[in-house]
Design a protein that fits this description.
globular; membrane; 18 helices
């Protein structure tokens, strides 16, 4: 943290009531970020990241780190690939139709099915059923969040905002996430009883960790389910948004799409039913650069941290207890560190370009002890998905990069949908099969 702050010296100091906020790259939207922390608790969607701290937070985070290991992720490659092929079955119905298709909804279902199966041990199967309409539900939830944050009179008294009509609507809409996690808990309990009766082996998952915490802390089913929502929402939203954005970027920049495809031919071949190995996924260097560049441009809104001790920066001393906000959008587009700051330029992540930048220029998954525990998992899921899709399809779009309009969500998103035409790469082989 000291190294990072010593490089980025542009601060804005702001008191919100008695709370000292120190903001890097100030933009007016930061006035609302402090409310965002509390909205989570007031509407009772989630509690893991913001309500739990200290030992309570560590007791949740440490087991998740142990679950999301290389060995565990590698054991899930077949499941990831099977669900990618299931997505292909959905997109076969729109491929070669000439119609534009919003990629986001099915990608959300794909990502939700994966995180539930691999991390939570639960078969959600949204790709086939789409009962929860996850993409639309989350978009509506976030839209209501923003209204509560920014519109009078809701934002005049955050403490009572959940009792307003918008607050009640938000609680109702977001209830689907809590109910899904409750179902995971109940299913996990039944499955463990069956495993115990049959003396079967069982690989520990995140729902097991929460079930143990529920018993230890005497939590209600509702409280325990809310603890799972961070992993559930983050697991399907960020992965699906990033994957949709990667495909849109490749559709807008076909030279990069073909370069990624050529890399796939060399490493895996052109058959999308072939499962890439861990080593093959790790060697997909061009695809990796495309993913990293997408995350540079379309990153989360900000990092916010409360300092546990004073930090001496020479001209400044940041006091313990203050809140530090870092505007990632500005950091990731700072021309001091990026040769093409506002362009899609995967060569930013060539090894020589990385070596010429100071550390701390790039935080797509946050950093430090509270960094995203799913960084490796999310990267492998995206590589498996994109490898499968790009061996099977070519993506085209009428959208232009400089003409895109954006909206803020959990991360920066394209407004109006991820609209592409999907074409089979080898139509003749598709007809034969």
């Amino acid at each position: 943290m000291v190294g990072f702050l010593s490089i980025y010296i542009y601060f804005f100091f702001l008191y919100i009531y008695s709370l000292l906020c120190i903001i890097y790259n100030f933009i007016y939207i930061y006035i609302y970020i402090y409310i965002y922390i509390y909205i989570y608790n007031f509407i009772k969607i989630s509690t893991v990241q913001y309500k739990f701290a200290g030992k309570e937070w560590h007791d949740l985070r440490k087991p998740l780190n142990k679950i999301l290991t290389k060995q565990m992720i590698e054991s899930c490659l077949t499941t990831m690939h099977q669900k990618a092929l299931k997505l292909c079955e959905r997109w076969d119905s729109v491929a070669d139709s000439g119609k534009v298709h919003n990629l986001r909804p099915e990608l959300a279902n794909f990502s939700a099915d994966n995180v539930c199966a691999n991390v939570c041990g639960y078969d959600l199967n949204e790709l086939e059923n789409n009962k929860l309409d996850l993409c639309a539900t989350l978009e509506r939830t976030i839209a209501l969040w923003i209204q509560l944050l920014t519109q009078v009179p809701s934002n005049l008294s955050v403490t009572y905002s959940r009792y307003s009509q918008k607050g009640r609507n938000l609680a109702k809409v977001s209830r689907v996430f809590t109910d899904t996690c409750i179902q995971m808990l109940r299913d996990n309990m039944k499955r463990k009883e069956t495993i115990k009766d049959n003396n079967e082996e069982h690989t520990k998952n995140f729902i097991d960790v929460l079930s143990e915490l529920k018993a230890k802390e005497n939590l209600s089913e509702e409280e325990t389910a809310r603890l799972a929502t961070d992993v559930f929402i983050a697991g399907f939203d960020t992965t699906s948004v990033t994957a949709a954005t990667v495909l849109l970027m490749l559709a807008m920049f076909p030279e990069h799409q073909e370069a990624v495809y050529e890399e796939q031919l060399k490493i895996v071949g052109d058959d999308p039913t072939v499962i890439p190995t861990w080593d093959q996924l790790s060697s997909m260097e061009y695809l990796g650069r495309v993913i990293k560049e997408t995350l540079r441009l379309y990153c989360p809104l900000a990092l916010f941290r409360q300092l546990s001790k004073d930090i001496d920066l020479g001209d400044y001393t940041l006091p313990a207890g203050c809140t530090l906000y870092i505007r990632l959008h500005c950091l990731h587009r700072n021309p001091k560190f990026w040769s093409h700051p506002n362009e899609f330029y995967p060569d930013h992540f060539l090894s020589e370009a990385i070596a010429n930048r100071p550390k701390g220029c790039y935080f797509p998954f946050s950093a430090g002890p509270r960094g995203c525990p799913g960084k490796l998992y999310g990267t492998i899921v995206m590589k498996m998905l994109l490898s499968t899709l790009l061996r099977k399809y070519k993506f085209e779009t009428d959208l232009k990069y400089k003409g895109l309009k954006y909206k803020y969500s959990i991360q920066l998103e394209v407004s109006g949908g991820y609209l592409c035409r999907i074409k089979h790469r080898n139509k003749e082989s598709e007809n034969v099969s």
